[in-house]
Amino acid sequence: MKNNRLFFISIISKCSFCFLLTLNLIFPPYFLFAQSGGVAINSTGGAADNSAMLDVSSINQGMRIPRVALTSTTSSAPITNPVNSLLVYDSVTVGDVTPGFYYWDGTASKWVRFSTGSGSGWSTSGNSGTDSLVNFIGTTDAQALVMKTNNTERMKISKNGNI
After folding, report:
1. What angle (nearest 5°) sits at the alpha carbon of residue 58, between those of residues 53 and 60?
2. Mean pLDDT of 85-112
3. What is the pLDDT of residue 129?
4. What separation, in Å, do the N-terminal and C-terminal C-alpha atoms of the chain show?
């Protein structure tokens, strides 16, 4: 009877060992790749900065943003259901889009162009070729226009046009 019990315990031990060994062989990728940091793309093999989900670095190369042919700032095409803040480079001039970087504003459901730094705003040395129907200093909603110097309000044009 004692031999049967030892034999039974021996079989259970061997089965348990085989089961654990099988689990270890099947599931190691799930344990080996559990990382707390982000993904690093670089030539040095360095780890990603803890604050970054994606850390791209190079001393002599840049990162190329996906190029697409947008059709309008108010249409998500050619991208289906873009996520808020999706970044693309528009490669064509069509309608109200010109080549440049755009991000998707999910709240407004439109593409927003990053500033080119080349004069989409008013220049302090003057602007040429303006059209008073589309180029103006002011607001497009029912808000007052405030002028300040030294961060102190000096003039206010109310939404009714009163100064």
Report:
1. 155
2. 93
3. 76
4. 107
